[in-house]
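Bumping with the actual sequence this time:
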Amino acid sequence: MNQEKGQHFPQKTQQGKQSERVRSGKRWPFVLAKVMLVPILVFFSLVAGLMIGYGVVGDKPMSEVFDLATYKHMYDLLFAE
């Protein structure tokens, strides 16, 4: 840190800047994979939780989780007048 007058910190050359741009450009598939991984994992966690909750806790067939009539029946039970 003993800097005398006229000495400067070394700056990056053009070649260094270009290599950084190329390197960051090659990483976009990995960034996209990370961004897409979270919603996919959340979706599969939701499906697995529904199947376990309906099939194991509720003692019903797990295949009924994918039936639309099941959710229509639940909606009618909740919002019936």
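The tokens above came from a reply further down the thread. Residues 28-57 form the longest helix (30 residues).
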